[in-house]
Amino acid sequence: MSKLIITAAICGAEVTKEHNPAVPYTVEEIAEESRRCFEAGASVIHLHVREDDGTPTQSAERFKACIDAIKARCPELIIQPSTGGAVGMSNEERLGPVSLIPEMATLDCGTCNFGGDDIFVNTENTIIAFAARMNDLGIKPEIECFDKGMIDMALRLHKKGHIKAPMHFNLVMGVNGGISAEPRDLVFMRGSLPQDATFTVSGIGKAQFPMAALSIIMGGHVRVGFEDNVYVSKGVLAKSNAELVEKAARLARELGREIASPGEAREILGL
Ligand code: KMH
Ligand code: ZN
Fold first, then answer.
1. Which residues, 6+ apart, have CB-to-CB distance to 235 below 8 Å?
2. What pLDDT is attached to residue 268?
3. Which of 30, 106, 158, 269 could form a disulfide with 163 if both were Cys (CB 3.0 to 4.6 A apart)?
4. Which of 50, 57, 120, 134 is the pocket-test mutation for ligand 1 (most atoms within 8 Å of CB)?
5. Coil, strand, or helix at residue 161?
6. Are 106 and 114 in contact (CB under 8 A)?
7. Mind listing the pLDDT tens digit for each residue in 239-254?
8. Can you give the pTM of this predicted structure?
9. Can you tell me whether residue 49 is helix, strand or coil?
10. Which pLDDT score is estimated for 188?
């Protein structure tokens, strides 16, 4: 089994300091949080950025400021900007950070409910357009799948030449509107991936660590962080994303899986 890539999704677009005061907003907070996650074992930062007041933004300038500040502290980290942004943003807005030509970026492969009246919209044409932009710029997509149908969409687009192999997936388990986060769900999702694909697993809320443990055992990789979950254990808010990374790394070691450095993660992901 390969070494384990731990991705830290440090702030997302929806979680706020009201959920957990340690959610980073400013450039300094995002850079320091990334450094702490790196020191705890993360090799990839899944990056959303905010204005200082916490408003989500896909501004290339703000991404550049955050990426520069992260790289000044941890030059080797893999930075994976989001092209999902926040619910309701236009496609052009969402593509903001792609102009910086990061090594990776997310490619959301379907539309789903996102709680309340929110819908996260990704039509087939949107996915094709985002994939084309990433292909042109040599950016490796992390294919975000919130449900089984999104894997099927990615496979169809791969057959039509829009997404290149080997594909790397993020199986997001437990979104309110997506697939649930039972072990049988992850077995089903994983069993639907091509043999040569790599995958990471993001369990939402209380599913974060059960899904992480299962992915570690199944040969997948793991994403943790405030974007998906703000608690380190039942009712206990994590003091930093790094606490969540530390817990994932501890689980991996207990289960006999070594942690990948950013260089090793690049090899595994073919970056
Ligand atoms: N904030 C969600 C609406 C991604 O990063 O690509 C979308 C999201 C997915 O977080
Ligand atoms: Zn995200």
1. none
2. 98
3. 158
4. 120
5. coil
6. no
7. 999 999 999 999 999 9
8. 0.98
9. strand
10. 98
Q: From ligand 2's centre to the CA of 60, what distance in Å? A: 16
Contact 179, 151 (CB under 8 A): no
What are the residue ranges spanned by the domains of the chain? 6-265
Per-residue model confidence (pLDDT) at position 83: 98
Is residue 228 in contact with ligand 1, taking CB distance under 6 Å?
Answer: no
Phi, psi of 259 (to 5 degrees): -95, 135
Alpha-carbon dihedral angle through residues 240, 219, 141, 159, given to the nearest 10 degrees: -160
144 ligand 1 Cβ < 6 A: yes
Confidence of residue 132 (pLDDT cuts 50, 70, 90): very high
Residue 113: half-sphere exposure toward Cβ, Cα within 13 Å: 8
What amino acid is encoded at 89 in this protein? M
User: Is the domain 6-265 a CATH 3.50.30.30 member?
Assistant: no
Please tell me the total number of residues recorded for the chain in this structure.
271
* CB of 208 shorter than 6 A to ligand 1: no
